[in-house]
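ugh ok so i messed up the first submission bc i forgot one of the chains. this is the corrected input, ALL of the components this time, i swear. 742 residues overall. if the numbers dont match what u have on ur side tell me asap before i send this to the collaborators (the ones from the other lab, u know who)
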Amino acid sequence: MGVRAIRQLVVIAVALSLWSFAPRPAFWALCVAYVAAVLLLSALDAGRFIGRVPRAAGLVLLAIVLGAGGLGVARAWGAFVEYEGLGGLAERVGDRVRVEMLPAIAPRLVVADRPQTFFVQAQAGEEVSVRFGARGKLLRAREVGGGLFRVEYDPKRDGAPSPADGPLPVEIACGGRRSERTLLAATPLAHPRWLAASPDRARAAAVSEETDELVLVSARGEVRRVGVGDGPTDALFVDAAHVAVAHRDEPALWIVDVRGTGAGPRRVEIGTRQARLALSPSGQRLAVGRGGRAPELVLLDVASAGVAARVALPAAPDWLAFGADDATLIAATRADATLHEFRDAGGTWREIAALPLGRPAVTLARAHDGARLFVAVTDYEPDGRAHLGNHFIQDQILTVDTSPLRVAHSLLTARRSPRQSKPGDVDRGASPLGIAQARDGALLVAFAGTDEVWRIDASTAEPEMIDVGDAGLYAPHGIAELAGGTLLVSSPATGSLGLFARDAAAPRVVHLAPSDGALLAHNPTALERRLGERDFYEATRAGISCQSCHLHADSDERAHNLGDHRLLPTLSVRGMTGTAPYLRDGSYPRLSDLDHVARMLYRGYLRKTPGRAETMAAFVAALPRRETSSGASGDLARVQRGLRVFERAGCPSCHAPPLFSGLGQHLAAGLFPERAAQLPRDELLDAPSLLSVAAGAPYLSDGRARTLDAVLSQHNRDNRHGDTARLSRDERADLVAFLESL
Ligand code: HEC
Ligand code: HEC
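and heres the new structure output, hopefully the right one now
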């Protein structure tokens, strides 16, 4: 190496060392440090000195100078990245390259437990096929138009992704050419959530939506796992021998004979997107809540398994319960955070009362006599207005009389144990997710935020508390009481069920998924996701968890003040991977940055866990995008016309296919001049991906547009958000149909 090259290396090393002492870790400080290093070394006449030093000593000196420079960089790098706003640069560049390199495919996540739609952007008019994983089938994509293709992938039909977790090679064949892209595969493990006891309380039923199973557990811990249809969402004993199973992706409700006679299930066709179930007091009626395009309640006659009535609803019901008799049914809907009471008047069901709660029912349970319901909420605001407190959460259980429908009592649950030292910190009673009434009338509550179960007895002041986290049952969801007072608790994150018998020294834990140890050895990616799932539900010292607003990773459909005195509608955190940066203003470069909120604003966690930011990000990254109701069954000709309108109106410049986002930020005042007066001058808005957009109402950053059509008409007065002014009503309808198909 020549003297000049060595001199240059020394200059760089000295500059980096100087830079690490600069008052600000900025780029300009690096330039100043470089000039200073050049001046310093020429003042010392370094070139001549280097020429005269013996070779061995020179090498040692050089190593010392370079080492010092390296240390300087190591010290200053993190601060530099932060100061210059370069955090998450790798994620942003990675996501951008992925969507700009043709052929491009989106979304980035492939899950193994459900059918999914992917979009490919390639040459118009070509034949395009896609293979997910080395062993997958080659699937033909269908061109929507203009080089945009859609491909339907059903892991059950087309082969599960392989490898099952982590980077997944995807082959895209266009014409004669083959390209390889890397997506992210996730194969969820068993997730038992809600529990339903049999009439004699000898056993309980649960479903695992992720692994398509019905699970039966006896009070002694014996387990039976029965394969059921696609995406089971709820299970309920209709009598001692039969369990009704609702499905997300299968049009039939199943009635499964659980006596082990080998008889197949009875199927009742009522349509997909079945959610919760409820059984009437006499056992003769079964109510099923359905979401999707036309949400409704379906009432079945248990004996004949026939549909007795259908009641159309404006929004999907989250929870159902019968009142005191077979003719009274209460449904909780998230969209309006209200309980609706329906009454059967000779075969037609009419709404007779509505009770606004202000926040959606997170869970609810019926008292034995149906005269009351127990409803968990994150706050109670009967006037329906949003609470203006910053990130305001106040977990409570409401006792609701069913006739007339009214709140009779409220119990705040969050409280502090001696483990906490600071006033205001809580570590008990956060995020109640499961409620059941014990035989003796006591209330049983599972708290996902604080890994515990309470038994609340009206006759004693303080609830009895069981730490289920000690038995490895993190973030418990479901609770049921079995014979002899044994409590059954579900922990979906760990795929396990715990039995807490009155007289047993230790709980018995039934594992439906591999243990943490087994995952660590064979599937560390799945273990990361599992730990992240716990992080997501875990309460901070402020009693708030991610779950408090993002109900099961979706939105509570409320608006919250996130610190700057403006109310922002909660976004779903599903389908995020590959869309960096995050939040509506794009201010969070990486998913892992969200942990920052929990640590700074919510005063951190009681439980110290290294790598929490990464495990939380791993969990969020593996959440599939939300399902929309139209999908492949939409009217293709109309969707194709809509795509042409989409192109003509200039939408792709910011919502570029196949992700339908350019991953860029835009000045809010430039996009919506009519609102400029209400906005901070330099407010930026991230161009969101339009995949699954139909599932995300209300729209725009403050939720001011109720429908997609309103985004394109009422709320685009200045015609800057795409050129929609010239579109006819029909063209706009086609465009909306196209957006709904994404
Ligand atoms: C007090 C309610 C609340 C809590 C608690 C909360 N969030 Fe949010 N979250 C919101 C709201 C409101 C938004 C929309 C913000 C905006 O408009 O940019 C949001 C946005 C997000 C987004 C961006 C979604 C997108 O499309 O860009 C992610 C990711 C997210 N939250 C994750 C989390 C995680 C992880 C936690 C727990 C550490 C958490 N949130 C806790 C209310 C909350
Ligand atoms: C100049 C860039 C730009 C163009 C052109 C553009 N958009 Fe947008 N779009 C955005 C940004 C930025 C947002 C976020 C606005 C907000 O958060 O209030 C957005 C939001 C949306 C939303 C609401 C998404 C949600 O979840 O709230 C829809 C729907 C949408 N755009 C559709 C379209 C259509 C259709 C066109 C063409 C007619 C179009 N956009 C043209 C940048 C653009």
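quick check: Residues 413 and 429 are 5 Å apart (CA to CA). that seems consistent at least. The mean pLDDT is 90.
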